[in-house]
Amino acid sequence: MIIKICGVNDPENLRQVARLDADWIGLNFYPPSPRCLNLRGLPPAGSGEPQRVGVFVDEIPQTILSRIVAFHLGIVQLHGSERAVMIQNLRRSVVPDIREKLVVIKAINVATAADFSQCGEYEGVVDYFLFDTKGALHGGNGEKFNWDLLDAYQGHTPFLLSGGIGPGDADALRGVRHPLFRGVDVNSKFETAPGVKDIELLRSFIKRLRE
Q1: What is the C-alpha separation between 39 and 140, in angstroms, rounded?
Q2: What is the mean pLDDT of residues 184-204?
């Protein structure tokens, strides 16, 4: 199972999170977010550390491209209303001249089964979906959607589950049986302040999820 810890914006906290048994760390590049990355003092990625994911909301491709280069990103997460053609153009701009491969995650906000109809545009275009709770914010709303709705997803692209996942949800996550469920994205329920993660809560949660 892929474990992604999203929205870390404190350099020292990022160093601590990087030592956990996670797969991906989300770096938020959306300026209105309280979790937008603090670029000052950002530690370089170390060998064997989780991969860093750039999180963007309706950003222009040139800016995304510059962040990919500057922060050595191999994964981008698009959390706005980005169209499939924009994603295809972005990938062509990156692969193979800048990166041999670019993994693209497209967030889909879910409140009802009908929301999965949005996925059709992105089939064959993105590598993963991230199913998040539809809310006032672009992520970090701290609320779950009804996971029973996942039965309505009939696409072919694997997905990560997000939205209000907290320390007590490990057992429920291990019980998700959808064949394309590939991992989890955690954020606000593991924070001591926006962008600062509680390391011991994460450590315990990850251990339980890995069992």
Answers
A1: 20
A2: 96
Residue 206, number of CB atoms within 10 A of its CB: 20
C-alpha 29/C-alpha 145 separation (Å) is 25
**In whole angstroms, what is the distance from residue 17 CA to residue 131 CA?**
23
This prediction has a pTM of: 0.94
Question: According to DSSP H, which parts of 78-194 are helical?
Answer: 84-94, 170-174
- Residues 130 and 181: beta-carbon distance below 8 Å: no
Strand partners, 77: 55, 105
**Segment 15-24, tens digit of pLDDT:** 999 999 999 9
Q: What is the pLDDT of residues 125-150, one digit of tens each?
A: 999 999 999 866 555 556 899 999 99
Closest CA to 185 of 20, 18, 8, 26: 26
Amino acid making up residue 151: D
Q: Where are the beta strands (DSSP E) in 59-209?
A: 75-78, 103-110, 128-133, 159-161, 181-186, 191-193, 196-197
Q: What is the mean pLDDT of residues 83-106?
A: 96
